[in-house]
Task: inverse folding
């Protein structure tokens, strides 16, 4: 029986079993990184980039644990004192983390990075499956910077390997704010 590969759009999480498509038919996002481990793929478009609304909503709200905890603590318990204070703190932290990821994707400068580690994070589990963490390095003005992408539940470890190149978008005034293009989350 041949090995069946299911590819998941990094933008909207639509699944494509055994496809050769390069763009998602649901949101238009690129699927390139999912197909081959040793090809870099197309360079990201120049900034400003428009990200799919579904992706931004997932990063800011539905896929962001801190934001969801903040919303749950704030809205239903608005009449108490302690829960909304905790909720507002969590909500703001969740949105800050999301914006730190989205800003480089929308406004960042592109460069080539290299994967330095791919591992499973066994401290977490969803439906009995642990996510992958991908660590990468990239160089800006002769200085090497590190980044990582966590909570990857698709089969990235089957398509990527240590040493593979990938596109990294970073903020020129703060290269520590970086994201992988296209996103792996």
Result:
């Amino acid at each position: 029986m041949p090995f069946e590969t299911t590819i998941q759009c990094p933008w909207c999480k639509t699944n494509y079993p055994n496809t050769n498509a390069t763009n998602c038919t649901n949101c238009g996002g690129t699927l390139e990184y999912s197909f081959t481990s040793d090809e870099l793929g197309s360079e990201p478009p120049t900034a400003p980039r428009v990200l799919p609304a579904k992706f931004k909503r997932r990063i800011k709200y539905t896929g962001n644990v801190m934001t969801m905890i903040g919303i749950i603590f704030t809205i239903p318990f608005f009449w108490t004192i302690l829960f909304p204070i905790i909720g507002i703190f969590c909500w703001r932290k969740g949105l800050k983390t999301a914006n730190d990821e989205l800003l480089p994707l929308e406004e960042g400068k592109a460069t080539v990075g290299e994967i330095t580690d791919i591992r499973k994070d066994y401290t977490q589990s969803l439906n009995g499956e642990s996510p992958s963490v991908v660590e990468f390095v990239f160089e800006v003005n002769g200085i090497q910077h590190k980044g990582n992408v966590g909570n990857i539940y698709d089969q990235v470890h089957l398509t990527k390997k240590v040493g593979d190149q990938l596109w990294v978008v970073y903020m020129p005034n703060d290269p520590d704010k970086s994201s992988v293009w296209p996103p792996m989350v």
User: Anything to note?
Assistant: The first strand starts at residue 6 and ends at 8. The helical segments are 53-62, 65-74, 82-107, 156-159. Residues 82-107 form the longest helix (26 residues).
